[in-house]
Amino acid sequence: MKKNHSSRRSFIYQTAITALGVPLFSSFSNPAFITKNKKTMNTNKKLGVALVGLGSYAGGQLAPALQQTEHCYLAGIVTGTPSKAEVWKEKYNIPDKNIYNYQNFDSIKDNPDIDIVYVVLPNSMHAEYTIRAAQAGKHVICEKPMALSVADCDMMIAACKKANKFLSIGYRLHFDPYNLEMVRLAKEKVYGDIKKISAAFSFVAQKGIWRLDKKLAGGGPLMDLGVYCMQGVMYTTDMEPIAVTAQTFPISDKEKFIDVEETLAWQMEMPNGLIAECRTSYSESANFLKVEGEKGSFELQPAYNYSGLKGKTSDGKIMEYPKLSQQAKQMDGIAQSIKNKTQSIVPGEMGRRDVKIIEAIYEAMRTGKRVIIQK
Ligand code: NAD
Question: Which structural domain, as residue segments, surrounds residue 214?
């Protein structure tokens, strides 16, 4: 497709985030909680973030992004591996007093340098470390998926409320200009009402990783990748599913996929009758969010990567934005919300909603039945 240079300028990131961010997700804000948090805070101060779990996402994406953020910075680390602590200490100039392990983590409560604890551990550990961080009096960012069950999400939300601290989920695409443009095109009905929407996110997983171990991951690609498809459908349509159906497929490698699904297709029935078609797999490659409206279509492919996203419309417009760090935008957005004493646009309640839908999809997969999502 030929690039339409004049149309590029109409895809303005700042407009999109300002126009769409707050109203879209405002159903998650909690005025009672916000009022309790009315202590004033020096808004010029950068908030100190401690990363818990120094794996590939923390090391490859979050720590570099925290070198670019304006409202927060990398103040501390929590790791079970002393050699990693040494490397990070040198690389990011982290003082010894801000380095913790999993045993002495709770003493982080006495450290005023740390305002936010960012949990970047395997999924099964999210609940425990979020609750411990809240009990230590810290705001929390928890990676996706929020937890392995709605019951755990409830305990995490309750712990943060009790501590009077904010809980956000590490959803980065709510801060990404390409995905926000999909939201704008849908919201403004530029291509009319949505007639079809589909999303897929898959990659080939290596044998032996924790993502294939149900105890640590909670499930297979649905927990890890499918959550992006669910989210893409929900923020684009501005609707939540009322029911789901799901189909799984014969396992190709029984040694690799012992207790998690390999490939899953599912459908989300939206309140207006629209059926969203989604698919995720650890044995395929796919990465898109496609929308067909009455008057044309718009899509991202790839849709969920950290960078290099590509968007186009049926009338030849190409989405193109300056390179940015999604994670820097995400952490700055969350830090700004904390400074302003408001919920972020990606609160714990949103993570809980998504875990509830995941539970329904797994039930539909197991039973072969249409599962209604309880309000
Ligand atoms: P990883 O395997 O690279 O890192 C996991 C970290 O947890 C490692 O430092 C490991 O040492 C530590 N750990 C502590 N206890 C462990 C245990 N019992 N088993 C395994 N590791 C243990 O994983 P990752 O890719 O960095 O993912 C971490 C979290 O971040 C996951 O919840 C994942 O879903 C999320 N994530 C989010 C994004 C995103 O774009 N938002 C991207 C990647 C990962």
Answer: 176-322+355-372
Annotated catalytic residue within 144, 165, 290, 317: 144
| Length reported for the chain | 375
Q: Which of 52, 56, 57 maximizes ligand 1 atoms within 8 Å of its Cβ, making it the mutation to test the pocket?
A: 57
Same domain, 255 and 336: no
Count of domains forming the chain: 2
Same domain, 17 and 163: yes
Stated pTM of the model = 0.92
Q: What is the DSSP string of 200-242?
A: EEE-PPPTT-GGG-HHHHSSSHIIIIIHHHHHHHHHHHT---S
Closest CA to 241 of 279, 268, 267: 268
Q: Which protein residues are within 6 Å of ligand 1, measured from CB? A: 53-58, 80, 120-123, 143-144, 170, 172, 210, 216, 224
pLDDT in tens, 281-293: 999 999 999 999 9
